[in-house]
Specification:
Strand order of the largest sheet: 11-12-10-9-13-14-15
Helix content: 40-55%
Bound molecules: uridine-5'-diphosphate-xylopyranose
Number of strands: 15
Length: about 450
């Protein structure tokens, strides 16, 4: 089929590349001229494992093309909209880029083509687009909601082997078209109406964010009652009704989706006079969670003025160069305000901009840690977990480590080297990862 992808961000680019891999003829459109020029040469604008090589393969075999605009001659069957939907100051969603795409598609799509929404948009948007198209005399165009669930860092795998496909459609013909388009994907398909599909996306992200804020609250409680949150999570996760995933306590969730989508869903509820209390609490808990290392530093050093603090990790999670809503941003601002010198280290992020100021980021931990007083593990990149700690101990001026992701395996050895190691929700617990499963009695009971 002839597919067009409006937008070449994480979702747009990965989906375009995978659609080409799946045998479709794909045109990816973006208004950013320099980005399109670079993509045409096979240059990948984002750090996403494996993406550049698939991009180059699909460019070479001619299934994938890039352009700054769609033309009527492109004769597209399905046009995806995968542009940004940022949060406005009042928590609502900015749909400017989505509507600009709708305008363009209304002028250029052939009769009977489909617009498939991939961008995360408020419930009711696809139906509004349908109406907007009718107002523009394009009653013939179909509109579907096809939300995206890929994660950064594992985006290719998530797109090739998703846990489910969700098709929000208005007719059986639309469902048939989407099934043909996704014939290369082996996954359960949820076929529903457009509003429900839009809500499935928000509800999924909000639920995952809820799990994270829940375990972070348990972690805060663990610190006060002397328990280990990693083992609490392990013990909880063995119950299949709970499951082990998304129960890692830490500095809170960041990235381009959870912070934005939780706020948007709370706003969507507010718009229909429903106060989503649980979600408000999830957002509030997350807004405080990055402060854990600050409290620990203050308890240890008292006055923080003049301390050299290294942030190990700048990306919001490992496997990506994305810094959106990374705890590193809030930590940088707060530590500087308290008079610290903040040093940034990350294996893939090269610079960090905070409140208009550009910070260099080194990819060499040994350089960053030289003469440091404290280090905070912000992102659990493997390179930070496998460091030569004896060497680190020699380099640091004082030996304070805050493990913001509960990822350092052998705390006892680190303490043996003279480090004071604190983490999230493991107060008084000397060694990490001690959890083991002990069967007692009959499993069937
Ligand atoms: C998320 C959703 O998982 C994906 O389905 C959706 O399409 C986009 O948003 P992503 O933002 O790439 O994907 O990252 P994810 O791996 O889900 O992590 C989000 C944040 O939660 C990260 O900051 C991560 O560090 C944090 N997290 C995750 C925790 O703090 N604890 C956990 O147990 C899991």
């Amino acid at each position: 089929m002839k597919v067009c992808m409006m937008g070449t961000g994480y979702v747009g680019l990965v989906t375009a590349v995978c659609m080409a891999e799946g045998g479709h003829d794909v045109l990816a459109v973006d208004t950013d001229v320099r980005k399109i020029e670079s993509l045409r040469r096979g240059g990948c604008p984002i750090f996403e494992p494996g993406l550049e090589s698939v991009l180059q393969t699909q460019l070479a075999n001619g299934r994938l093309r890039f352009a700054t605009e769609l033309t009527a001659e492109d004769a597209v069957d399905v046009a995806f909209i995968a542009v940004g939907t940022p949060t406005l100051p009042d928590g609502s969603v900015d749909l400017t880029a989505v509507w600009a795409c709708v305008e363009e598609l209304a002028r250029k799509l052939p009769t009977g083509a489909m617009i498939a929404m991939k961008s995360t948009v408020p419930v009711g948007t696809a139906s509004k687009i349908r109406k907007g198209l009718a107002d523009r005399g394009r009653d013939d165009l179909r509109v579907a909601s096809v939300p995206e669930f890929l994660r950064e860092g594992t985006a290719l795998e998530d797109t090739r082997h998703p846990h489910r496909l969700v098709f929000g459609v208005a007719s059986e013909e639309d469902e048939t078209l989407l099934r043909r388009l996704h014939a290369w994907v082996d996954a359960p398909v949820v076929v529903t109406d457009r509003n429900t599909a839009e809500l499935i996306k928000y509800a999924s992200n909000a639920f995952l964010a809820t799990k994270i804020s829940f375990i972070n609250e348990i972690a805060n409680l663990c610190e006060r009652v002397g328990a280990d949150v990693t083992q609490v999570a392990f013990g909880m996760g063995l119950d299949p009704r709970i499951g082990p995933s998304f129960l890692r306590a830490g500095l809170g969730y960041g990235g381009s989706c959870f912070p934005k989508d939780t706020k948007a869903l709370a706003h969507i509820a507010e718009d229909v006079d429903y106060e989503f209390k649980l979600l408000r609490a999830v957002i509030e808990v997350n807004a405080e969670q990055w402060k854990a290392p600050i409290r620990a530093l203050e308890a240890h050093f008292g006055d923080l003025r003049g301390l050299r603090v290294v942030l190990l990790g700048v990306a919001f999670k490992p496997g990506t160069d994305d810094v959106r809503e990374s705890p590193a941003i809030a930590l940088t601002t707060d530590l500087e305000r308290r008079g610290c010198e903040v040093v940034h280290c990350d294996p893939v992020v090269q610079t960090l901009t905070v409140e208009g100021r550009l910070y260099p980021v080194t990819d060499r931990p040994s350089e960053a840690l030289q003469g440091a007083d404290a280090a905070v593990l912000v992102t659990e990149w493997p390179v930070f977990l496998d460091m030569d700690w004896e060497d680190v101990a020699r380099r640091m001026r004082s030996h304070f480590l805050f493990d913001g992701r509960n990822a350092l395996a052998d705390v006892a050895s680190l303490e043996g080297l003279g480090f004071t190691v604190l983490s999230v929700g493991r107060a008084g617990c000397k060694t990490a990862n001690r959890s083991r499963t002990v069967w007692s009695g009959d499993r069937s009971t």
